[in-house]
Design a protein that fits this description.
With about 950 residues, the chain is an alpha/beta fold. About 55% of the residues lie in helices and about 10% in strands. The chain has an 11-stranded mixed β-sheet, sandwiched between helices. A 4-stranded antiparallel β-sheet has the order 1-2-3-4. Strands 13-14-15 form a 3-stranded antiparallel β-sheet. It is globular, with a radius of gyration of 33 Å.
Length: about 950
């Protein structure tokens, strides 16, 4: 609550009766300013000093716009009215109390106070009361009641008060829209806009003006439902009108008005809804985050929960399921006791999320409420489709129940007018039909879907096309299927050309890669050269789209993001749902600052998606390869893996066999090595020969570049290559095939900087956070610091050990610009909380242990220009996986931040062995001057030592380069 200190002023203002006038208070009297045209003294009884201070405090609390303070203002005014003797002023102030109750959504209280008031049926107060009662009835969907109140005002002289006449026209237009009398609504809105031009902009008029444009937007939305052929155009009209409403609400000419703050929030949520209908989820998110930003300074729990709900739906639509879950769980906790239908919808979405994120143990908790939505007679067909799809997707019912649900779903989608949910239902039916070979059902579904391509989200449209392509190619890759695939390919490129850089949402990305995996499988099976080259060309372009590096490195402009990492540490520490929600909000609001400036808030692709077909080509890649170099490019079909070998003058390909079997072999090998189980050299060699087929290794050069994505991204390519009978001299993983964009290299930069954390330092007065408790000391890292710095010139090498190895040290200019940056510290990665990936250095201050955790997004939003970063910790190449793109790891974060090359690890490392490996690597590097060859040499050296012969000690190291 905001409690203002009463001023020494002799006059202050409070909203007057029903909000259509002002009350001006002095120490001697109360004056009513009606319709902003004339003043009437309503009380000449002097106010006592206590009364004046009390009413001034009420005015200050109300004008703050803070719900808690406004509720306190209403309570104080109600208490004062119960003790006030002057009946006339009491009646006027009671009407002011009505306005307060209305704005606080306390509709029963507003109606009660109006009922208690009495007066001449033709008096202006009665007109104002009727307008309030009509608006309450409209908000509660009581159209007959609203019609009754508004009809009672037909004979009222509208010239008596222009603001009230404007409000009357708006409410009558809104009623007409609800009653689908759109031509009447159009006439009434035209009258309202005529009045708008005649009325000066004042504190009383501003909320009505916002309401006017909001109602005009509502009119366009209603028109779009009746004219589906013009739906997109009409929704854009609604969007532009809603933007005008927001402009009025925010450009308030310096007028302080609590009602306007609420209207800004409502208009922002309306904008988000319209953007969602137009499938512009990026700008929907910006609108909702703008509302959330406003709520940080003007708390309103009800509206805040509404925004959480809309954000949860928005993140669900783009496939950010973990993020969606955080917001929806919070919204569900409120809706459970206040809005049963809303709660049921949220439970349906949470059921879907539980399936997608493999939280099968949660499904049973969400399904009952979701199922009730199906039998809610007041619900819409969209609600029923949502319930049916979620229940079918849950997979918990027997076949008989599933068939009943599917039959009901087919009937619902046939009558539904909600295109996006309609196609969602069709997709669910198509998946079942294809899985159970019900070709008649599939035919019906795909025929029905043809008319929906203008009314569904891009992700759903691509998914529908993927399913149809699967249907067309069930028996053979026919010309019809081939033409449809080519058409879908062009359709996808058309979609991508309309996206801004960085807007390729996971849901869309997943469906795009699903389609290409299926198409590639068919193209490769033809064994035609032009088809295999097409697969490679498209794969390169898709790789660039999803793995390309940002050209704007310092996205956050040097902002201190310590507080965001501290919140991540709190989530790791407490596993608190509230801490997780708070973290997402803070991080989202940080991104919002840059979204509003039109800057990329996340990693953007190096080339605009509109230039995608020309951004990378086989010919360009071949021109950049030297005679002794070969590029290995891995591609996943739907059931088969493939690898392409590209040299200066040739392109060859080989099949890697069954994809699921290969994945299992790689997982088994990864598990056996990381757990130090006995493993034969011959077993490694067999797997290596499958990953690097002899057909492509014969005659290849000594330098191999490797592009791994999708299912191949965690392969220990260096360890496998070294197991071949004739291993290459160097193996370099490559992130991007595009032209390099490297941060400027400073002259006379330091040669070597090292950060080492042998032990985390915790103040004796503090307890160690839970997330730190399992981190064991790294005593050999202190020896590592001494030994490695000794390899370089003393004047050009510096080690920061222990307490000095901190956030500030990592982000210092000398660390970010040194030729080589070496970090020996713990790495945090929890596959169950994949969004929290980071390094652990020592805290900046003992009062804030959270600052010891440095998240990957902090790193990728710094500006590094190191030639090499060596991350000598456990699993520093591991992180959050994205379909079709590389892992978002600490290793990749440094590359995105600008480092040229990074040495990282695929699994845990032993403290002493990691020192031995690093020492041998730098000796080889200083001897050869080649960071790439040094890695293979070091691995061979470690392998030759009996103590470190097991692949655990050497096969997990990899070197990744930003560009080819």
């Amino acid at each position: 609550m905001i409690i203002s200190t009463p001023s020494a002023s002799t006059e202050f203002v409070l909203p007057g009766p029903y909000g259509f006038s002002n009350l001006i208070f002095t120490r001697n009297n109360i004056t009513l300013e009606q319709c902003e045209t004339h003043r009437t003294e309503i009380s000449s009884v002097p106010l006592s000093g206590l009364e004046f201070v009390l009413l001034e405090q009420i005015a200050a609390d109300w004008s703050s716009g803070v719900p808690a303070a406004q509720q306190a203002a209403a309570l104080r005014l109600n208490h004062w009215l119960n003790q006030k003797a002057d009946p006339h002023s009491s009646q006027i102030l009671a009407a002011t109390l009505v306005w307060m109750h209305f704005n606080l959504y306390q509709y029963p209280d507003a109606e009660r106070v109006i009922t208690e008031l009495s007066g001449d049926t033709k008096s202006e107060a009665t007109v104002e009361a009727a307008l309030i009662l009509a608006e309450i009835a409209l908000l509660q969907g009581q159209l007959d009641k609203a019609d009754e109140y508004l009809s009672s005002l037909q004979t009222w002289d509208r010239d008596a008060c222009a603001p009230m006449a404007l409000k009357l026209s708006i409410l009558m237009a809104e009623l007409a829209i609800h009653q689908e009398r759109l031509r009447d609504a159009e006439t009434l809105l035209a009258e309202a806009f005529e009045l708008e031009r005649e009325i000066p902009v004042t504190a009383i008029v501003l909320p009505a003006l916002v309401n006017l444009y909001d109602t005009q937007s509502f009119f366009f939305i209603a028109e779009s439902r009746l004219q589906p052929d013009y739906k997109s155009e009409l929704l854009r009209n609604a969007l532009n009108t809603e933007k005008q409403a927001l402009h009025i609400a925010t450009s308030s000419h310096g007028i302080r008005n609590g009602a306007l703050l609420k209207q800004q929030l409502i208009v922002l949520s309306n904008l988000a809804w319209l953007y969602t209908q137009l499938f512009d989820y990026h700008h929907a998110e910006i609108s909702l985050l703008s509302a959330l930003e406003l709520l940080q300074s003007q708390p309103d729990p009800d509206l805040e929960n509404h925004i959480y709900h809309l954000l949860g739906i928005n993140y669900f639509n783009v496939g950010l399921y973990e993020k969606s879950r955080v917001f929806l769980l919070n919204a569900a906790s409120i809706a459970q006791n206040s809005n049963e239908a809303k709660y049921a919808r949220i439970q349906c979405l949470l059921t879907h999320i539980a399936v997608e994120t493999q939280r099968t143990d949660e499904i049973s908790a969400y399904l009952p409420a979701c199922a009730r939505l199906l039998n809610d007679e007041s619900g819409s067909s969209g609600d029923r489709i949502l319930s049916l799809v979620s229940q079918i997707k849950s997979g918990v019912f027997d076949s008989q129940k599933q068939l009943l649900l599917l039959d009901r779903l087919e009937k619902e989608v046939a009558i539904s007018g909600y295109d996006n949910l309609k196609i969602t239902g069709h997709i669910q039916l198509a998946e079942f039909a294809l899985e159970h070979a019900q070709l008649d059902l599939a035919n019906r579904v795909f025929s029905a879907m043809q008319s929906l391509e203008s009314g569904a989200s891009p992700a759903l449209l691509v998914q529908a096309r993927l399913l149809k392509f699967r249907f067309l190619s069930l028996k053979t890759f026919s010309p019809v299927a081939a033409d449809f695939a080519e058409n879908t390919h062009q359709f996808i490129y058309s979609l991508l050309s309309k996206l801004d850089a960085g807007e390729m949402a996971p849901a869309l990305q997943n469906q795009i890669f699903g389609f290409y995996q299926l198409w590639f499988e068919h193209l490769m099976q033809t064994q035609q050269t032009e088809n295999t080259r097409k697969v490679l060309q498209i794969s390169m372009q898709l790789n660039q789209l999803t793995n390309g590096l940002t050209t704007t490195f310092n996205t956050f402009g040097g902002r201190d993001l310590t507080h965001v990492s501290e919140l991540q540490a709190e989530v790791l520490d407490s596993d608190s749902a509230q801490a997780s929600l708070t973290h997402h909000i803070v991080w989202d609001l940080e991104r919002l600052v840059y979204a509003k400036q039109g800057l990329p808030a996340t990693s953007a692709v190096e080339y605009g998606s509109a230039d995608l077909p020309e951004s990378v080509s086989i010919e360009v890649v071949q021109a950049r390869l030297k005679p002794f170099e070969q590029l290995w490019f891995y591609v996943a079909g739907e059931t088969t893996g493939y690898v392409f070998g590209v040299t200066q003058d040739s392109v060859e390909t080989a099949s890697l066999g069954d994809l699921s079997e290969l994945q299992q072999l790689l997982r088994n090998m990864h598990s056996a090595i990381s757990q130090r189980q006995p493993i034969e050299d011959s077993a490694l060699r067999l797997l290596a020969e499958r990953i690097f087929p002899q057909k492509l290794t014969a005659g290849s050069g000594p330098v191999w570049y490797v592009v791994t994505n999708q299912v191949f991204q965690d392969m220990p390519v260096n360890g496998l290559a070294l197991s071949l009978r004739q291993p290459p001299e160097s193996v370099i993983k490559v992130l991007s095939l595009a032209t390099p964009q490297i941060n400027g290299v400073q002259q006379n930069r330091p040669a070597f900087r090292l950060l080492s954390v042998p032990e985390l330092i915790v103040n004796s007065s503090q307890s160690m956070p839970v997330w730190m408790a399992d981190l064991q000391p790294l005593p050999w890292s202190a020896i590592e610091a001494e030994k490695l710095t000794g390899l370089f010139e003393a004047s050009d090498a510096r080690a920061l050990v222990g307490e000095s190895a901190s956030r500030d040290a990592l982000f210092s200019e000398e660390a970010r610009t040194s030729a080589v940056l070496h970090i020996a510290a713990h790495h945090i990665y929890d596959p169950f909380k994949p969004q929290y990936v980071g390094l652990v250095l020592n805290a900046q201050s003992q009062s804030s242990m959270g600052s010891a955790f440095i998240s990957e997004f902090e790193i990728r939003n710094q500006q590094f220009s190191n030639e090499l970063v060596f991350l000598n910790g456990c699993a520093t190449a591991q992180g959050r996986h994205f379909t079709g793109s590389n892992t978002m790891s600490i290793s990749r974060a440094f590359l995105i931040g600008g480092a040229k090359k990074v040495v990282s690890t695929l699994w845990e490392v032993a403290d002493r062995a990691s020192l031995t490996f690093a020492s041998a690597y730098y000796e080889a590097y200083l001897r050869t001057g080649d960071t790439n060859k040094a890695l293979i040499n070091t691995m061979q050296d470690m392998r030759s030592q009996p103590r470190y012969r097991h692949p655990f000690y050497w096969a997990g190291y990899e070197l990744t380069q930003r560009h080819l």
